[in-house]
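Example with several molecule types.
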Amino acid sequence: MNKLLEVKKLSIKYNSEGNILNNINFDIGHKEIVGIVGESGSGKTTLVRTMINLLSPGAKVVSGEIMFQGKNIIEYNKEQWRNFRGNEVAMIFQNPSSYLNPILKIGKQFVESIRNHRDISKVEAIKKAKDTLEKMHLVDVDRVMNSYPFQLSGGMKQRVAIAMAIAMEPKLILADEPTSALDVITQTQIANELMDLRDKFHTSIILVTHNIGCAAYMADRIMVMKNGKVVEYDSKSKVIMNPEMEYTRELLAAIPELKGF
Ligand SMILES: Nc1ncnc2c1ncn2[C@@H]1O[C@H](COP(=O)(O)OP(=O)(O)OP(=O)(O)O)[C@@H](O)[C@H]1O
Ligand SMILES: [Mg+2]
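Resulting structure tokens for the full complex:
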């Protein structure tokens, strides 16, 4: 498969501690969904935040490269990151409320975010915002545009946050536990929306989840992380049916609905 992004020998540390990510190597193809699983503290969030330059101030890239379409994005300057973020890669967070501005109506913040990336008129931006909300199957988009975040349900807020992330049609979406804060039915709906995005727009998706069952549902390949290392990375069927590592077997055994595999 044609690679969209390749992480090579990446090591990261925070402050003066030892490496939190240790020599990470992996790639993601065009139109591919990769699920990253692993216990709490294994470094999943650190890894995806590195790819969009959203690490906290104490974090440091010790070594390694992240190649995206032939360029090492780790060497990008502020301006290059600004262009890259939103246009090429976008992130969806676990809690959409932390991403949405609570004191601005959805329409206003969506239009501002679009116009930060594209030199288009307000009228055009409003149209783009509404079209994208419709793509996320939000009904009554005029009401949504005219609402403050607190006036929407958790599932609606996450749909809005995803709409804002995909408005610029990024080639890669990083999703860090995008459905963990939602009820089971909404979780499945959002998972299906993300898979739809891949089919319609050929978006690649890196999905971080505690739940290997969710990765099994959505992903083409599954990466298992432990203590800041990739311990297994293979096709979904291989990882689930015939895992290499005892640790992966333990993760699988912890998911009741997968016990039959
Ligand atoms: N800002 C920070 N400063 C110092 N250490 C940090 C910081 N953020 C994360 N860490 C440490 O890095 C390690 C990996 O954390 P990370 O958040 O990447 O794990 P995770 O796999 O996403 O866990 P979870 O499943 O709980 O979200 C942990 O040991 C954590 O304590
Ligand atoms: Mg995390």
